[in-house]
Amino acid sequence: MERNRKILFLRIIFAALLVFVAMLAFNFFPFLVKFKMLIYIVPYLVVGYDVILRTCKNIVKLKFLDENALMFIATVGAFFLKEYLEAVFVFLLYQVGELFQNFAIASSENNIKDIMAIRPNYANLKQKGSLNRVNPEVVNVGDVIVIKPGEKIPLDGVILSGGSYIDMSAMTGESNHLNVGPGDRVLSGSLNVGGVLEVCVEKKYKDSAVSKVLSLMENINNKKSKTENLIRKFAKIYTPCVVAIGVLIFVVPVMFFNGVWEVWLEKFLIFLVISCPCALVISVPVSFFLAISKAAKNGILVKGGIFLEQLFNVNTVIFDKTGTLTTGDFFVSKISNENFSKEEILEVVALVEVNLNHPIAKSIKKAYNKELDIGRVKNIEDIFGKGVKAFVDGREVFVGNLKLMNSIGIYSCKDFELGTTVHVAINGKYAGYIALQDKIKENVKSVIKKLKQNGIEKTVMLTGDRKAVGEHVASKINLDCAFCELLPHNKVEKLEYFLCENSSNGKKVAFVGDGINDAAVLKRADVGLAMGAIGSDAAMQACDIVLMDDDIKKVLIAILISKKVVRTVKQNIFFSLSFKAVIFLLGVFGLTNVWLAIFSDVGVSILAILNAFIAFRGRFYLK
Questions:
Q1: Which residue has the higher pLDDT, 398 or 211?
Q2: pTM (2 decimals)?
Q3: Is residue 220 domain-resident?
Q4: Residue 124 in domain
């Protein structure tokens, strides 16, 4: 790409120099004017041979009516009229526009290359006391790898020994360093900036976080926006119509009204150049490409331009609670016991939830903080939406919510605590409860406020947590409403309600979740945004936009980027069509020429690309 850009730049410079030398030669050596066509055809071919070649190839394929064909026809006509300089400048300025387009795309590709640079080149595999540098793809689950300071983490795993700081900026767009030690999980693609780490591999390379991100980036432009697709379809219909009208402009006056063929041929050429859809065909996809790359630079992976366009039309944002609006880092705030000791209740619950990865289960196991003998637990059974049943040391144990307790005939217990409450029954007797609390993320309230300021009319929370907890969180951060005690299918039903509510006015609904239990809702929403989902297979497949960490500020940034790209595209479409319309009207009254026609096409294309480039240049500031 860079080599092609340099060659194009040299071609433009060389052709411009040839034109300049030719113009000087005509002044100093007037006899050379007789060879004007031969002299100008050299820079014409230097700068325009690729357009001519594409046109010829398209003619063979019977697909010749595109912007290349319009340019070629216009320049050939200019040669017939002996307007050689104009013919050269049509190609010259067209290629200047192409160069600007290439520079804009190269700038955005650099952002994407920064993300693609997370690909690990090797892994230090520990085998029989020695280290062997191997391809990450050959490392198996359970193998031990060593990550030295300054090396990329090649595979997802758990730290066995060592302590360090992990730089996840390539994955998340944030420069914060994470302090890690034994027992902590690390994700591939991150950079080890501290000490030596020994890591037990949890996933093969094809299932790792870095592999998922790279796969997304490679397919990121597959889903074009409706505007991009509309412009492409428009150009396919528009170009043949333009050629047909242009032919009529030339043929009718000459054949039926004794028009001077040179005059009407010039009008035909002016009409073709004015009508060339370059500004639209080039600037619209460039704008979306720049926006997607800017989002990637901010740790936001957008799967296609269509989702930015849909995000622009969102007026309702629905949030999951745990891990999205709250930190998801629960801590045990209280243990209430009946008939059993507090230590026994904590141990039983930790054993029952030993294989669960839900934040609540992790917090209880962390609070127990002792080695768990899995052999003591038998017949673990998940009870959908209520909790878990198991046998611990031969005793029947139920762990879950009030619905679970009521279903087994225990009605005396209640949720007294404001946080999440896990109830326990052992051998048919109520044992007590464990209360856990979760913190609201620091910047949530300000983000909700800014969403309102930027056109989001309604903010909603859907949670499986108790009504008291959900409503407390919603009131703290000023959400419009909260729906609590929902099972996963209830969340989809509530989402459907808001989708129906917005369908009549063309507005869209976005759902933001942490990706653990929200795959169905992410998939059903008009736009699904998964937070911190680089470790979650289901979330990355179900969502439309991946927020590569759990910073809710990224939701706001994604919406602002969508607004900026749609606004930029509308500006470019309006400006290019308006300017062309004015020049066309001037042409109807004979008040324009080839030079003005060239500017109405190529000049407008360059200005449209510059407008898109400036819109997404530099750092993206929150409003």
A1: 398
A2: 0.73
A3: no
A4: no
